[in-house]
Each structure stands twice: as structure tokens, then as C-alpha cells.
Design brief:
Length: about 120
């Protein structure tokens, strides 16, 4: 097989493969009975301006300095998280939260709201 005929074969193979993948996705939707979310329909978190992000950062920093226990509303989680901030990593942009004996690492942009407990 010459290189030119290989390129033609490979081009045909890729188009057949793409067609098979599309057919398989449609069959999976029928088999499962639930439509899958495509990338353009995936849930997205709310866009926030610089002022809101700065205010959130200040609240997190003060809670870490005081060692206060706080409630965090985190995007994608059903319940609020209660705990203390142990570390804020600027390189990875993760906030480390000690809650119930475990350390939960949450991306900074996923934190929607910080509240003080009303105990």
C-alpha cells in the first residue's frame, strides 16, 4: 500500500468512525431513555464581577485569620459546607476547608457565598 492510498484509506476510516460515534450516542440515549448533556447545554456557574470576587476573598481571608467556623455555599453541591479554612493556595486556587475531620479542597471560583453560623 503506498502512502497516498493509505491517506485516502485513513480519511475514509476517520469519517466512518465519526459516523459510528454519532450513531452510538443516539443509541445510548434511546437505551438509557435520558438525553445526555452536550457541551453547549452543560450547567454553568454564575458569572461574577471583580467587586464580588474581591469581597468574597476578603471574607475568606478574615475567616482564616480568625479561625472562625463558617458556612460555605458551593456551586454544584446540594448542602452548605460547615468548617474552618485551613489554607488558601494561590498557585492552585484551592481553598482547604477542615470539616468533620476531613479536609475538603474547593476551587475558589466555586464558592458562591460565605456565612457565619448563628449558634
Amino acid at each position: 500500500m503506498s502512502f497516498g492510498s493509505y491517506k485516502a484509506w485513513n480519511k475514509g476510516y476517520r469519517s466512518r468512525r465519526r459516523w459510528m460515534e454519532e450513531e452510538f450516542e443516539e443509541e445510548m440515549e434511546i437505551m438509557i431513555g435520558l438525553p445526555t448533556l452536550s457541551k453547549k447545554h452543560a450547567a454553568q456557574r454564575l458569572a461574577r464581577d471583580e467587586f464580588e470576587l474581591e469581597e468574597l476573598g476578603t471574607q475568606l481571608f478574615e475567616a482564616q485569620e480568625e479561625g472562625a467556623e463558617i458556612f460555605l455555599t458551593i456551586w454544584g453541591m446540594d448542602e452548605q459546607v460547615r468548617g474552618r479554612i485551613t489554607n488558601m493556595d494561590p498557585r492552585t486556587r484551592l481553598v482547604h476547608i477542615a470539616c468533620y475531620g476531613d479536609t475538603l479542597k474547593v476551587p475558589y471560583l466555586d464558592i458562591m457565598k460565605v456565612e457565619s453560623p448563628r449558634d
